[in-house]
Hints:
By secondary structure, the chain is an alpha+beta fold. The protein has helices at 90-96, 111-125, 158-167, 257-265, 267-273, 314-333, 351-361; strands spanning 35-43, 55-63, 72-83, 98-99, 103-107, 139-143, 184-185, 188-189, 192-201, 204-215, 243-251, 282-290, 295-296, 338-339, 345-346.
Amino acid sequence: MVSLVPRLRELGIVPRYWSLNPGPRNSIADVRGVRVGHVTLVKGGGKLVPGKGPVRTGVTVVVPHEGNVFVEKVPAAVHVINGFTKAGGLVQVEELGVLETPIALTNTLNVGLVADGLIEYSIRENPSIGVTTTTVNPVVLECNDGFLNDIQGRHVKQHHVLEALESASEDFEEGSVGAGTGVRSFGFKSGIGTSSRIVETPVGRFTLGVLVQSNFGRKGDLIVAGVPVGRYLKEGVEQSEKGSINIVIATDASLSYRQLKRLARRAGVGLARVGGYSSHGSGEVVVAFSTRCRVRHGAKQLIRAELLPDEYLNPFFKAVAEAVEEAVLNSIFQSRTMVGRDGNTVPGIPIDRVVEFVKRYGDIRK
């Protein structure tokens, strides 16, 4: 991971109730083939001029594998914890159980333009789309970054999406980058966060990774490693319960649509551990996919897959809860103070004070 700021584990915050080990990067990219790309747009300052700036936004893409995703689709499932969202493409994933484009994350009013970028990318890779074969289903998730950003300007354009896809890598930044540029959580600056877990089962060793775009929560509700630190921090700004989080779960275990749906539902456990409770006006969307089995576009033969028995899913459920919790906290700890439109300011979390609270009152590994 590329970072100038310590991540949660580097600060010595590892709760004892986390029993699973992270992958080598502690990232969604620990799932082989998965890559992440960002384009970050920061421009101007001062008074908001709708359509002009200031700009504090971006796009983040999650690419499921190194091949052609439209041709080699991956099993996927959607779970909507709270449906206050303008996301695109979820209905077809829910119906067919496959993902056929990378997943893009951006701001609320940029969903259409970002979807256009995914469509353009897919057509360039597959000129037959809409001509001799089916159309394509772009999946775009969103958060409202309008407190800091000129959201009416819809500054993320098609070429930014293509640039993010071109730059996608196993090593990527967290915090106020890409789709995380203009978001905030629990009264502090947040952004993109990621984490992973290694899952041991009687039939093999697997990896599960999570990436979040977090934009939710009141300061007083923030919990870090079981300690309600938000109640005691003087820093931070008050924000309403309204907000959103998008969660992408990837695994190399061979799981069906139904099993991936079960994983996605457990993301709410991780959110609860950091103080989230899915308030009215908040949108929480989870997309989970498996890289193990690929579904060939237009397949006419039987599709064979060796599926993991349900009785081995428990450690995956635990992995989701742990990785979502850690990814959200990383999204906050990796972000620094940002000033946006009209002088609106969101401070970075006071890392030293939080570490002090947690090490004094939390049950963490020594």
